[in-house]
Write a structure and sequence with these properties.
heterodimer, A: 172 residues, alpha/beta, Glutaredoxin, five-stranded mixed sheet, two-stranded antiparallel ribbon, 7 strands, 38% helix, B: 178 residues, Helicase, Ruva Protein, domain 3
Amino acid sequence: MRYLLPLLLFLGLALMLALGLERDPRALPSALLDRPVPVFERPVLEDPGQQLGSAALRGQPWMLNVWASWCEPCRQELPALRQLSARDGVPLYGLNYKDRDDAARALLGAVGNPYRASAIDADGRVGLDFGVQGVPETFVIDARGRVRYRHQGPVTAEVWRDKLLPALKAAR
Amino acid sequence: MSARLRLAARRLAPVALSALIALTASSASGAPEAGTATVSAAAPAAAIAELEARESRLAHQLRCVVCQNQTLAESNAPLAADMRQAIREQLRDGRSDAEVVAFFEARYGAFVRYSPPWQPSTWLLWTGPFLLLGAGLAALAAALHRRGAFAQGAALDALADEAPFDPDNDEFEEGRPA
């Protein structure tokens, strides 16, 4: 008994520290979860005469990927996004965050465009409304226009299979 | 813990923490942001200065969500600059300080506030130090009590053996610090 208590305290502390090592301190839960998707209406990168807005996308679950051509992880995830969203028929839209339009279009032309459309967010205001901390981030929005999931960092096949796709299926 | 103690802890915790934050902020903060005086030429200088003071105060209360351990005022991150810009615009539009904080809290969660609010998820954070202090005091009291009971028994033995017991000085040798 005399040695049991310190031992238990030590084990408890060790367990908490071990769990802490596994967690990413930068990954914050999105404040938007289960809240209505922020209202936005922005010109489309691929066709600036058109507008892309959150209102027009209601009625179906969709994904929003926040990206920029200056962001290396975004460049890396583009091919995977294109392949995965095409394979599973997912309505994937982009938010081109604080980017130069010509650089963004050049990148999409070079590696292929995974998005049905990308909204131009040159001043980052739409990103601020989404609580974006750093690109890339990916949001899953349900048919009623509520945010159901947020992924921070590049999308990989594992993230797509284990997190994004199940969230999208649950959002129907 | 008694209800009164809990209440006292609840009242004291924010005071203690804000004192600590004020101390760190005053040592860490520099001059207010440069280049913010772009309101309107007609606005009196006093009003501009007041807006800047409020902006600076808010920037010290909000966290840069990219760097996390810096306030908006301290951070050079582009996102922090955007957030400061948003503060400035909202103050210019006549919003209150509380409304500006609520704006960021709705987007980034309570974490964006440098001083955490009192809510269920932060109860342990606020009361933790006091709970630990209480647990330590309780353990100390228990240990002293045990030692006291033991020493009293020893004193009675000693009394029976030889030395006369002094009732004015009923402290026990073992429990006394050197």
